[in-house]
TrEMBL record:
It is an enzyme of class 3 (hydrolase). Its EC number is 3.5.1.13. One of its GO terms (molecular function) is aryl-acylamidase activity. Pfam families: Amidase. PANTHER family: INDOLEACETAMIDE HYDROLASE, TRANSAMIDASE. The gene is aam. Residues 2-286 form the Amidase domain. It comes from the Bacteria. It comes from Pseudomonas fluorescens. The lineage of its organism: Bacteria, Pseudomonadati, Pseudomonadota, Gammaproteobacteria, Pseudomonadales. Keywords: Hydrolase. This is Acylamidase.
Length: 309
């Protein structure tokens, strides 16, 4: 087990790349004081990673709970997550977001691996259908960039202002700060309104579906000497983090999101699937992830020995 934080998939991408379970809880589920600001800086949350859902839930039972030092923390005892995860999922409605109707470039094999996992959900009694999402995904990306620029500029602005310290920053960090310093208050407000509109849109989707599904990553694990993927299936990534855009819908919603394992490609590289639940329905997401885990048993399988070490 391990704890971590997730602003742009850091509990989901690594979990998918290592064939383990990762869980980004609802906003406020795990109290933390990782920022000078306690009210507005609400993109990154703390959560657990583990080989099994049960282990992750046990860790969350210790992490979660109200804390007077975190005014937005949820007033529900963490002990609730130590309860048995077993549940009947007959008739549960799952919506498949996939690649947002072709908007997100995906490395070949990712969508097919995720779709093969549907059989395990169906064996639980779930019904799966493609989602026709009316919210324009490019708006999510624009909102995300603005909010991230602003937050990074706020946290690293003083470091950037010192020439000696600035020289120690990565070019990507400098790029974030520089773009953040160009923003106006109305730019940030507009981005927050877009985020709010997305929350309203996903809440409407949850009137029809109990959970939403989409891949955990747009690429399979890549060589450690490569800083980041610059293209995906011929599509150029225009920023250093565009290849992780698939995690943005979950991040901006503030809803609980899990990564579950869906198997390996022909090269033995693992991939994962995101399960997004309703606001504060963290335990329900863990329950579905646990049921899927028991049906698929992927958590008991390991990558090829050739990929180790």
């Amino acid at each position: 087990m391990a704890d971590g934080s997730d602003m742009m998939g850091s509990l989901r991408n690594p979990a998918a790349f290592n064939n383990i379970f990762g869980f980004r809880p609802s906003q406020g589920r795990v109290p933390f004081d990782d920022s000078a600001d306690l009210f507005i800086d609400q993109l990154g949350y703390e959560g657990p990673m583990a080989r099994s859902v049960r282990d992750a839930a046990l860790l969350l039972s210790v992490q979660a709970g109200a804390d007077a030092r975190a005014p937005l923390s949820i007033a529900e005892p963490g002990s609730a997550f130590a309860a048995p995860l077993d549940r009947d999922f007959k008739g549960t409605r799952l919506g498949w977001l996939g690649d947002f109707n072709g908007y997100l470039p995906m490395e070949k094999g990712i969508l097919s691996l995720c779709e093969k996992a549907f059989a395990d959900f169906e064996s639980l009694g779930c019904h799966i259908e493609p989602v026709q999402c009316e919210f324009a995904p490019e708006k999510l990306w624009s909102s995300w960039r603005t909010l991230r620029h602003w937050m990074v500029a706020g946290s690293l602005g003083a470091t950037y202002a010192d020439p000696q310290k600035r020289a120690l920053l990565k070019p990507e960090a400098c790029w974030e700060v520089e773009n953040g310093l160009k923003l106006s208050a109305t730019d940030v407000f507009a981005a927050s309104v877009t985020r709010s509109d997305w929350y309203r849109a996903i809440s409407r989707l949850f009137e029809k579906y109990d959970y939403l599904l989409l891949p955990s990553a747009q690429v399979f694990p890549f060589d450690k000497t490569q800083p980041w993927p610059t293209t995906i299936e011929g599509v150029t990534m225009d920023t250093y983090h565009r290849w992780m855009e698939v995690v943005i819908p979950g991040t901006l919603s503030g809803c609980p999101v899990a990564n579950v394992q869906v198997g390996f490609n022909a090269s033995g590289l693992p991939m994962g699937l995101q399960i997004i639940g309703r606001h504060q329905a963290d335990f329900a997401v863990l329950q579905l992830a646990h049921a899927y885990e028991q049906a698929s048993r992927w958590f008991q399988r390991c990558p090829s020995p050739l990929l180790r070490g």
